[in-house]
Design a protein that fits this description.
Blueprint (H helix, E strand, L loop, with lengths): L12 E2 L8 E11 L5 E11 L9 E3 L4 E7 L2 E2 L3 E3 L2 E3 L7 E9 L9 E5 L2 E5 L19 E8 L4 E4 L2 E6 L2 E10 L6 E4 L2 E8 L5 E8 L8 H18 L7 E7 L6 E2 L4 E5 L12 H16 L8 E2 L5 H19 L2 H20 L11 E2 L8 H18 L1 H15 L3 E2 L1 H12 L8 H4 L5 E9 L2 E9 L14 E8 L5 E10 L3 E6 L7 E4 L8 E4 L3 H10 L3 H22 L5 H12 L5 H8 L4 H10 L6 H18 L4 H8 L9 H21 L2 H9 L3 H13 L4 H11 L3 H13 L3 H12 L9 H13 L1 H4 L5 H14 L3 H8 L10 H15 L6 H11 L2
Bound molecules: O-methyl-L-tyrosine and zinc ion.
């Protein structure tokens, strides 16, 4: 064992230090002899020194491995075990390296490398997990073909690529596509498959499988359809075809993230692939469809073209998130998807970008790369691609992508390669645009306007607050999509993209008969914070008239925030004009139900806290909670007479179909039910709970009842009904904490950690409880500090079991500087307590130190 003990000052890696590996890897052959506590891995790797190598040190990464033997060209050699791996003297010509190591998958609770989940062997190698399987140059720019032999008595034994042979107790696989080690995968266990097939555009038949544990066969059909739709969409929209004879997906219960794009063998967190109407909500179905698409799309954006180093992570992740968003927009509703994405961006990425964990989409340093699978790399990375597409136009975008695939197929690339393709395809200079990749922080864009003699002028001023390590920022290219409406509601200028490139810049519109109402940042054309003096009546006007559906929702959302902020700051009553506007919209059956549901969904309490903070106020979580309660109660009363009719009109009859139409109606119906439950003592919700034949309606009824503290019987019944279904049980755990009153939240969560079904070893269950605690804004931030304390205690306990999930969940504290000095002191004490834990992982150490140094 030569595990580097993570101590006070872990090593920092820098982008500027990049050096290629001094050896080509021509082929890799691995043999696994599976055994839960003593798996033997034999590797036979052909290396050849590069003639032009800057550095010919022969260093192979390796962690938590017991080295049994090493040979070069058949002769035993002595390798020097060093920090994080081994070194060896090697010939200056091509040679065969062989090593035998022993590993302990059953003891691997970190879920990285080869581990066991419910008796099944599985792997997770991204980003640096392969080094826990054998000694190897574990870096994405080292690519090779892999041949794998698995020996064991598991009924199903899978690896990447195509099967090449199998017999009693063994199976062999070969992946003809050179790949980095992070895309390696192995799965072995008692599995059953849900089969499918797809014929590609060039006529190749591909066998598809979703592999699950016996008992889950009935939850695969939706995922299989989503997979077929994804393959077809990538052919139709990007011209990209699948490149193996087989595509396998495996569902695993214990998994740190959503899913993983291993070549030809995607491994999924079971929560991101298993679905049935009885156990999954509409939101689950949409998410599953998107994640299956995401992982499939990685086959080209990630696998065929991969990253040179982990600093370039957004090269594959930003692009693949962008592609999966396009897919969801095409399969479902474009405006609804855009609105959902912006809500998520503001909830997760904006706080990151405005706090101690801020980093650019392409970071320049890290201690633990697993800490950089962030909303900034993924979601902002995707926003950057959306801006690029807007700047160059659709045709140029697809022209550039075609060039990207032609030029870089089979390579490990950088952001520079990516931008060069766009420059070559369009002739445009993208040096200023590149700042989006290197500068952290969310730009603020201040808008002012002027109208005289038929000429309307919009002036934009951009600035970005300092972020860790980046005190000063240069102006960026910001595509501002703008349309103009006349005071009677007609659109007088269709959407036009104004390219803002300077710190301050004006744009004029001629020939306007009267002062127009501007609709700015349509479709949310750039990830910025808009600052503009405007009135609630103008917001209400845009909510009623804007032709851009995103901005129509945005106007309603801004209005909702203003009303809530006024309630919190001045103790104002809910604005009557806003309530009227909402009522009108909800009752307007001509409007898309999904849109109405979104407008009726209040801004989150955390979002209000963020808004108050941005405006220089210290948010009081309890006051924000009280304002939310008062508002919802007042809205329910205002709608009282129409609620029963609206409830009936939006109830979806007939068999459940998880499509966008039905989901939109059910979302609206759920919102109405929650309002109704505030007035009818829960009668309607209890009826819905009793009669629901699908999880969306059952869960909506249970949530409404629990929020109203009328759901005790139903919560019990729900537990009885679903206690054997771990994915439904995750919902049950989370819902109790989400619905708890602020003063009861921590106690509720604490009690649930004592429940026999709670487990530290299952990330989904841990997240269900601790994620719900952190997500209950007023409960987590309750003045007692009990929420902070409980989370810190559990993170400390989890760290030695699963550092990755611990470190990710530490981010719940990232907004700590928003709050008052008492809360800050409480959080600081908890962060210091975590940091003082002996043997703390490198992952958690990095996250907590970054937060404390803010
Ligand atoms: N590449 C995967 C995400 C992923 C990253 C790391 C993991 O383990 C540490 C697992 C999955 C994706 O983007 O879907
Ligand atoms: Zn991804």
């Amino acid at each position: 064992m030569n595990d580097a003990a993570p101590n006070a000052a872990p090593q920092t890696f820098y982008l500027k230090d990049y050096k290629p590996f001094g050896y080509e890897v021509e082929s890799v052959k691995l043999t696994f002899q599976l055994s839960p506590n003593a798996t033997k891995v034999h590797s036979a790797i052909r290396f050849s020194p590069k003639a032009d190598a800057e550095d010919n040190r022969f260093f192979l990464h390796g962690e938590q491995l017991s080295l049994i033997s090493a040979k070069i060209d058949g002769t035993p050699v002595t390798a020097r075990l060093v920090d994080g791996g081994l070194e060896c003297d090697v010939p200056r010509t091509s040679f065969l390296w062989e090593a035998e190591v022993e590993i302990d998958p059953a003891a691997n609770t970190a879920l990285e490398g080869l581990y066991m989940s419910k008796g099944m062997y599985c792997t997770q190698c991204e980003a640096e997990g392969f080094r826990k399987i054998t000694y190897y140059p574990d870096r994405p720019d080292v690519m090779s073909t892999f041949t794998v032999r698995i020996e064991g008595d598991e009924p199903v034994m899978l690896s990447n690529g195509n099967p090449t042979g199998a017999g009693e107790g063994w199976a062999e696989w070969h992946d003809p596509w050179p790949k980095p080690a992070y895309l390696f995968a192995l799965v072995a266990g008692d599995l059953v498959n849900h089969p499918g097939s797809f014929t590609t555009k060039s006529g190749k038949d591909v066998e598809l499988n979703i592999w699950v544990r016996p008992g889950d066969e009935g939850k695969c059909a939706f995922g299989m359809e989503a997979l077929k739709k994804s393959i077809k969409w990538d052919e139709d929209v990007y011209g990209l075809e699948y490149d193996l004879d087989l595509f396998n997906i495996v569902a695993v219960d214990d998994f740190n993230m959503g899913a993983m794009e291993n070549k030809g063998l995607n491994i999924f967190n079971s929560s991101c692939v298993l679905a049935s109407p009885e156990t999954s909500t509409d939101a689950n179905f949409e998410r599953i469809e998107a994640i299956i698409a995401h992982e499939y799309f990685h086959n080209w954006t990630g696998n065929r073209i991969t990253c040179r180093d982990w600093f370039q992570l957004c090269l594959k992740e930003g692009l693949t998130v962008f592609r999966d968003a396009q897919f969801t927009a095409d399969m479902r509703s474009e405006p609804v998807k855009r609105i959902e994405d912006v809500i998520a961006l503001r909830a997760r990425q904006f706080p990151e970008d405005g706090g101690p964990l801020a980093h650019p989409p392409r970071p320049e340093e890290f201690q633990e790369i697993n800490n950089f699978y962030t909303a900034t790399v993924y979601e902002k990375g995707a926003e950057v691609i959306g801006m690029l597409k807007r700047l160059v136009g659709d045709d140029n975008y697809y022209k550039a992508l075609k060039l990207y695939f032609e030029r870089h197929d089979g390579q490990a690339c950088t952001i520079e390669d990516w931008l060069k393709v766009f420059e070559d395809a369009t002739g445009r200079d993208l040096s200023q645009f590149k700042l989006w990749y290197s500068q952290a922080g969310t730009p603020r864009v201040k808008v002012s306007e002027d109208y005289a003699d038929g000429t309307y002028t919009l002036t934009f001023e951009q600035s970005t607050p300092p972020t860790p390590g980046q005190p000063e920022k240069a102006p960026r290219v910001i595509p501002m999509a703008v349309g103009l409406l006349s005071p009677n509601g007609d659109e007088v200028r269709a959407t036009e993209v104004l390219d803002l490139t300077e710190a301050k810049q004006s744009f004029t519109f001629e020939g306007l008969a009267s002062k127009p109402v501007p609709s700015i940042l349509r479709e949310f054309s750039a990830p910025v914070i808009l600052e503009r003096e405007t009135t609630n009546s103008e917001r209400a006007f845009l909510l009623a008239h804007d032709t851009d559906p995103f901005n129509r929702w945005e106007a309603g959302n801004a209005l909702a925030k203003e009303v809530r902020v006024a309630m919190v700051l001045d103790g104002a009553a809910p604005d009557a004009a806003y309530l009227d506007a909402l009522e009108k919209l909800v009752r307007d059956d001509e409007q898309d139900p999904a849109f109405r549901a979104l407008v009726l969904s209040p801004p989150s309490q955390s979002d209000i806290a963020q808004t108050l903070h941005e405006r220089g106020h210290t948010p009081d979580p309890q006051k924000i909670y009280d304002a939310a309660e008062t508002f919802t109660q007042t809205l329910a009363q205002q709608l009282e007479t129409s609620l029963p009719r609206l409830y009936a009109a939006t109830t979806v009859e007939g068999p459940y179909v998880p499509d966008a139409d039905g989901a939109g109606k059910r979302a609206l119906n759920g919102r109405i039910l929650s309002l109704l439950t505030r007035l009818d003592g829960g009668e309607q919700a209890a009826r819905q709970y009793a009669s629901a034949d699908n999880m969306t309606q059952q869960y909506a009824a249970l949530a409404a009842l629990m929020k109203a503290e009328k759901g005790e019987a139903q919560s019990k019944a729900f537990f009885e009904q679903w206690q054997d279904d771990r994915l439904v049980m995750d919902k049950w755990f989370a819902l109790q904490i989400a619905c708890a009153a602020p003063e009861a939240t921590a106690a509720t969560a604490k009690e649930l950690t004592q429940h026999p079904l709670f487990s530290m070893k299952n990330p989904n269950r841990f997240r269900a409880v601790m994620g719900a605690l952190a997500g209950n804004h007023a409960g987590f931030h309750h003045a007692s500090g009990a929420g902070y304390q409980l989370l810190a205690e559990n993170l400390i306990a989890l760290d030695s079991v699963n550092p990755q999930t611990t470190a990710r969940m530490c981010a719940a504290f990232q907004t700590w500087k928003r709050y008052d000095s008492e809360r800050q002191a409480q959080i600081q004490a908890e962060l210091e307590r975590i940091l003082a834990t002996s043997g703390l992982s490198r992952d958690t150490h990095e996250m907590v130190s970054r937060m404390l140094s803010a």
